[in-house]
Amino acid sequence: MSLRLRLTLLYSGILALTLIAFSVVLYVTVSQVTLNAVEETLVDEAQRLIGSRQFQIDHIDYRARKVAAPETYIQTLKPDGAIADRTANLGDYVLPISTSGLSACKGGRSWTETTSTEDGRLIVYSKPVIAQGETVGIVQVARSLADHDHALATLRSILIAGSVVVTLTAFGVGWVLAGAALRPIHRITDTAQAIGAERDFDRRVDYTGPPDEIGRLAKTFNAMLTELQATHRQTEQALQAQRRLVADASHELRTPLTTIRGNLGLLRRAPPISGDDRQAVVADMVDETDRLIRLVNDMLLLARSDASQPLRIEAVRIEPLVEDLCRQARLLGVGRLIECENVPDVVAAADRDALKQVLLILLDNALKYTPARGAITLSTSADDAHVTISIRDTGPGIAPDALPHIFDRFYRSEPSRTGSGAGLGLAIAKELIEAQHGTIAVESQVGRGSVFRVTLPRREG
Q1: In angstroms, what CA-CA distances link 285 with 14, 90, 288, 295, 413?
Q2: Residues 74 and 86: beta-carbon distance below 8 Å
Q3: Measured by CB atoms within 10 angstroms of the end CB, which terminus of the chain is less buried, N or C?
Q4: CA 325 to CA 356: how far, in whole Å?
Q5: What is the 3-state secondary structure (H, E, C) of 17-29?
Q6: Is the model's pTM score more than 0.90?
Q7: 292-329 burial: b if 16+ Cβ within 10 Å, else e
Q8: For the CA atoms of the chain, what is the radius of gyration?
């Protein structure tokens, strides 16, 4: 059973129960009020009849009858219940009085009861006539309830028919209104099915109604689609990155492995190669093996970065870190001028080991591409929110068309900047800096060198 049908049946049922309760109360109220009105009329007529001077228990003359309305039936009884006199309009019919009614009248109390006849019901009011403290007779006044019962039957038919018509009308109107109210939910369902079938996360639910429950549902669903779209794109990018990594790694691994395989073939030659050639082949194999080890280590580092392992962000003092890097660079870059300038005593929010590794990668690149007698400069600047560390070299620079790809994995630019690396260093640096909520950028001019800038959030020391 659909939600639309359940809602329609629910409020149609509530309406039907309400109409039934209202009809029952109305019917009972009208019946009782009209019956009380008839009874009060009989009481008044009996009282006027008894108060008439012409009235006698054993004789009801024409003048006495004029006191009562023509549709009223009158009968007098003796104290023992025997009929004393009766009006002609009764014909052969005798107004009844029950044993309880007779006892009540003998005791001086009035009695009202209804009885059924061939022509319908009668209401009979019996009132004792008391003289000198004793009941000397009983006056019975009756009226037909046919009109009363007919009116109640008409009212009952109207209430039943009206309730049925109103309930059916309400069901139809409710069905239409429920459909209109649930139409946005149908659109959400259709959109979800279309997204599942087409995998189109750019679609959204078009809702222009009020910000009610359905409006909030549509808004929440659209927000969920936005999150799913972002997650789907991230997943696609991750899959593409993994495919690219596997393809690039396969390409990078193929070269040293091919070299090692060829050198092994030379070592197995018969007759064997000369001793000098053997030493050269072994040295070549050691270099290629070291290259493989560096490549595997870099790939493991990238894999850990892709796994989003959180770094330990803490307060890192920049001045001692840069001074330590300058000392190491001077030991490694013999013959090059290593300068450290503008190193303020500031604190950055970073992971010390990861930051040092990034700066060592940048220094290694600067040493690799800076010629002998060239200069490398480390400088630091800070503002209220950020700390920036710059490493400037005087190497050949980077071509403008290569700058957008310099941080891509396994990317190496023109031969002037191609060394023995696999093109993973700058990609690792970018991953590590972004994991510390920082940025890394490069500016370069061909023939004049490059400058890499690492920017991190500043923290109060």
Answers
A1: 89, 138, 5, 15, 26
A2: yes
A3: N
A4: 8
A5: HHHHHHHHHHHHH
A6: no
A7: beebeebbebbeebeeeeebebeebebeebbeebbeeb
A8: 55
* Helix (H) or strand (E) run with residue 347 in it: strand 347-350
Q: How many CA atoms lie within 13 A of 233 on its CB side?
A: 7
Who's near 278: CB < 8 A, 6+ residues apart? 267, 272
pLDDT surpasses 90 at 451: yes
Look up tokens 């109060």; give the residue: 460
Q: pLDDT tens, 108-159?
A: 899 999 988 887 888 999 999 888 888 888 998 998 888 888 899 999 999 9
35 vs 60: CA distance, rounded Å: 27
Query: Contact 86/76 with Cβ under 8 angstroms?
Result: yes
Assess contact for 422 and 295: CB atoms under 8 A.
Answer: yes
Q: Distance (Å, rounded) from C-alpha 68 to C-alpha 74?
A: 9
* Contact present, 141 and 68 (Cβ < 8 Å): yes
Token reading at 134: 């004793």
Write down all domains in the chain, each with its CATH number in brackets: 3-152 (3.30.450.20), 213-306 (1.10.287.130), 314-459 (3.30.565.10)
